[in-house]
Amino acid sequence: MIQGDKIKVTISDLNNEGEGVVRAGDERFVVFVADALPGEEVEARLVTKKKNYGTAKVLRRLSESPERITPACGIFGRCGGCQLQHISYGAQLRMKRKTVVDALERIGGIEAPNVHECVPSPELWGYRNKASLPVQSLGGESLRAGFYRPRSHDIIPYSDCPVLLPQINRNLNGLLTALREEGFCGAREGRRSLPNELIRHIVVRQAQFGEDSLCAVIGRRPLSKKEEKSLRSAAQKIKGLSGMVYNINDSPGNFIWGGRTIPIYGAELMSERLGRYNFTFEASSFFQVNSAQALSLYEYAAGLALDGAPGKILELYSGVGSLTAFLAAGGAEVTAVESWLPAAKYIAGNAERNGIKKIVPHTAQAEDIAESLSGSRCDVVVVDPPRSGCDEKVIAAMLKAVPERIVYVSCNPATLARDIKRLAEGGYTPLEARPFDMFPQTGHVETAALLVKTGK
Q: Of all helices (H) and strands (E), which one includes residue 142?
């Protein structure tokens, strides 16, 4: 095969980007085919060809999977936000469980892992409580905001997104209109921006079980007094917005947040309720994007951790203390560690607000504090790291702490499996894993896994 060839293939699998998978020859060469489902026979054109893989575009579908459905979004396929809108929900859940099983077998080295069925989301549409839109000055548009095209930084202009909470769509439409009316411009990517090209990102958050709605505008430099007045004027035009902040990020790279945030309008904080607990946080703090499903995940993970009535729990990557509250409900003393100061500073306040006494918060990198804390014995370690998983120092400290059980919450099956393999080599046996569909219509999956000490 060479680039440009027409090929006729039958799709054998699906990756978590929603692309059909075809293995050729000795199966070392893989072709990824957009908009093709397992079992479908398609005629496609090879668009790119690398050493071990290629990508292809469907020219004609010769057969159609019974799992294929009509996407709800008009820009599905062009926008990279969702990958699975063309697949029935039952098939999405099966695919996500299979993703976890495959990772644990292939990367974790676990034979026939005990992976439960994927827990469906309470809402399949209109569930997402946060939207993050990159903004650019591009192609004659002074302010283009939207979502990235798959595998690129090309922005597909925003239009109402069906996975967002309805109030977020209302706020985004009002905000973008207001920013353009006030003359704001997006920043240029990859080139030096002109003095008036300011905005890099927009983040809008909305409580699913409350009224609070918060917006953050992220810019590449401090605002002038005139710009601050104009931004406040834009915020005042948005009906239902609780508050707006402006964050300054003058560093290169794709990380959204900078180190300085100033208030612009209304509230600087927002609150969300999960079950009987209420949590306050700011725009940059980590909080699960699907509040209803987060409640199910936290109740399950806390149940794994609290089995056996532990006296002491070490929790790493604790965010604003949302899972922490569920862990402390069993009466254990919880040491909660979070590195991102804008989140960590709310752990103690959220505990007090919910009447929880036995929480000891620490603001530090998990890898820095885990070693010092590992000297004091704990019964359970709970981790909920970013997609990159746990640092090797964290794994070493967990093993040194010798807890009876480890509960690992992960949004990335690959790094979950990698870290479980490390822990297994240190004397822990993975007993079970349960996927949760935190992100319907996308290829992402959240997982809670339990490991118990079985070796020296």
A: strand 141-148
